[in-house]
Amino acid sequence: MIESLLVANRGEIARRVIRTANRLGVRSIAVHSEADAGLPFVTEAAEAVNIGPANPVLSYRNPEAILAVAKSTGAQAVHPGYGFLSENADFARAVEDNGMIWVGPGADAITAMGDKINARNLMAAAGVPVAAGTADPAATVEAAVEAATSIGYPVMVKAAAGGGGMGMGVAVDEAALRTEYDKVRGFAERMFGDGSVLIERYFPRVRHIEVQILGLADGRVVALGERECSVQRRNQKLLEESPSPAVTPELRERLLAAAVRAGEAVGYRNAGTVECLFDPGSGDFFFLEMNTRLQVEHPVTELVYGLDLVEEQLRVAAGLPPAFDPDRLAPRGHAIELRVNAEDPKRFLPGPGAITAWSEPGGEGVRVDAGYTVGTTVTPFYDSLMAKLIVYAGDRAAAIERARAAVAGFEIAGPKCNLPFFAELLDNSEFISGEYDTGIVARMR
């Protein structure tokens, strides 16, 4: 097993990785910005180093600063968490070029999947279903109009280098396409340094379903079930559950097989997620993207499969076999994750602030992965995620009931908080039925 691990991230995911490292006897090393000096992940690591100002470009997105700390502390490996540098192929290469272990997929796989157009083409060649769309970037708005006419409206206009729900727009006709094209292209150039644009078929009523994969040290790729991620605001997830209430055994078999083919097509190693769109009307699913990292929502898979995905990541990176039998994977029960954000529960606008009260729910089947506690401050410099509230029970109905009680028992004061939204959602008849799609939040509002 790896002996020392630098966690190149912050908040709840840094704390989550450090918890597993500490349990395994791996020396954990945290890096933190000046703004995060008082957060729990800093004090729970065996060692912590300040890497710069609050601005993430000068701290968590600063590869030179992180590599300098990794070398000075004698870190054997680097775990990037999610966000920041987690899908930066150059950073992954730099870690390995400096003689350290990268806890994630190889840089070539990150590069291959980082461009949505290239990823679509690779998946199509591997026999993974993809939605109708452009095989090359739409270099001009006229090329986008021509592609959309061929595909048929409505279409999704997407930044080829985008991710995390950013850099997307929907066009229902040519006039809207011209507007969205310029908007997405400009956003992509500013945010990603790459203005390439993809035009793809848009499905008004669709579900967002993803498959957790794990590329093992021996070269095999295994699928660890699916997660339903259709509760979203601004194309970003708020609630995830596993298994998906929309997936039949026959569909599950097809989904998991496609996800394994996707991983095999790029020689995938370590944890990753194959995201798909599912059209309930036709029963068809389509490849959306592959996230070459650990996902925010990985705990629901952990609870349903009874494993620790961070430990499995470390084992793969160290060249060790998994702690489970890949030939005897057996999901059990139902898990739901709620992303507890510092945001207005109506309009979902960020509302940072000092935390004056923080009391987590507990009991059987309740887990809280938190980045904050009482006396700490949610600053405006980073994502608004404060904690993930995860519940597990024998079936979906029991899990929903447990989630209701856990939400009612979670007290947070100071910053704005979206817990009231979850109380509303968990009593919503559409959600309870399991027959919801990505438009559920908009319909609630």
Automatic annotation (TrEMBL):
What InterPro entries does this protein's entry cite?
Answer: ATP-grasp (IPR011761), BC-like_N (IPR005481), Biotin_carboxylase_complex (IPR050856), Biotin_carboxylation_dom (IPR011764), Biotin_COase_C (IPR005482), CPAse_ATP-bd (IPR005479), PreATP-grasp_dom_sf (IPR016185), Rudment_hybrid_motif (IPR011054)
**PROSITE patterns from the UniProt entry:** ATP_GRASP, BC, CPSASE_1, CPSASE_2
Which keywords accompany this UniProt record? ATP-binding, Biotin, Ligase, Nucleotide-binding
**All residue ranges annotated as the Biotin carboxylation domain in the record:** 1-445
Q: Which domain of life is it from?
A: Bacteria
Coiled-coil segments: none
Q: Which Gene3D superfamilies match?
A: ATP-grasp fold, B domain
- Give all residue intervals belonging to the ATP-grasp domain: 120-318
Answer whether the UniProt record assigns the keyword Nucleotide-binding to this protein.
yes
Does Ligase show up as a keyword for this record? yes
- What name does this protein carry? Biotin carboxylase
Q: Which organism is it from?
A: Phytohabitans suffuscus
